Amino acid sequence: MDRGIASSSRDGSQIASPDGLAFKNINNPIKKQTICVKQDDDPCHFLRLLYECLVAGGLAGLVVEAALYPIDTIKTRVQVARDGGKIIWKGLYSGLGGNLAGVLPASALFFGVYEPTKQKLLKVLPEKFSAVAHLAAGALGGAVSSIVRVPTEVVKQRMQTGQFASAPDAVRLIIAKEGFGGMYAGFGSFLLRDLPFDALQFCVYEQLRIGYKLAARRDLNDPENAMLGAVAGAVTGVLTTPLDVIKTRLMVQGAGNQYKGVSDCLKTILREEGSSALWKGMGPRVLWIGIGGSIFFGVLEKTKQILSDQSSQKIHKA
């Protein structure tokens, strides 16, 4: 694990990176750095880390959703279509505004939990268990952010499938017909998909970064971060496609309740459409998450670097 690596400043002093992973200049990537305990326990240090994570995560999530929303819409419509139903190619940006309003706080909340949790676990777990820290932090971040992500996803996917004309109408009518619980339709299936997805994606990405950095004996540049993000996203996207199909079916069914739950949805799909239906939309999903992973992690790491540099400059001036 490379959390002990530190960068060297011009005056020869060593500066620990806020995320324990991003560095400017590495002389010896194997050498461990003793980090000041007082800094770790300093509330200001934690708040600064939290602020950087909230800003970087929120911005990265916003950029990805805005750039790749049409691909996500196509994926949703493919997964919902049954018996050779036609895919509508119009209105590929339906629900974008409402989705962005939810993605910003959801992404910020995820990283506000993920990064501090990851750093705490990396300090208490043996280095050989770094993957466990990444898995646990990713799952916890996904669980906490689901409070915002699930209603955002419900509104988004129902607008993508043409059920509502605007996000405010969607929220109002869903609550009127299904109660407040309708905003959390498919919550269980969402967690079933997103907890393993978040845990796997971030674990794969973090482990790839560690191995790449040690092999290259230097810090990763922006294109390399983006490339590793694309690989992590594509691999995880393939593995979790069946879970995504079930989640989508449950979220868009509305008050009709065609499916009674995750188990019933799975059995019905297998009985009526065959196992191949569980892989519907895999192409656009992998394309969306692969490209999205590239953009997301590229923007994330760059934003974290900029914010970290600004914080370091303020500390040196003080």
TrEMBL record:
Q: Where are the transmembrane segments?
A: 49-71, 92-111, 131-150
Q: Principal localization?
A: plastid
Give the InterPro entries listed for this entry: MCP, MCP_dom_sf, MCP_transmembrane
Give compartment(s).
Plastid, Chloroplast membrane
- Keywords for this protein: Chloroplast, Membrane, Plastid, Repeat, S-adenosyl-L-methionine, Transit peptide, Transmembrane, Transmembrane helix, Transport
The way this protein sits in the membrane is described as: Multi-pass membrane protein
Q: Name one GO biological process term.
A: transmembrane transport
Signal sequence: where? none
Solcar-type repeats, residues:
48-120, 129-211, 220-306
Work out whether the entry's keyword set contains Endoplasmic reticulum.
Answer: no
The UniProt entry's GO CC annotations, sorted and at most eight, read: chloroplast membrane
- What does the similarity note say? Belongs to the mitochondrial carrier (TC 2.A.29) family.
Q: What is this protein called?
A: S-adenosylmethionine transporter
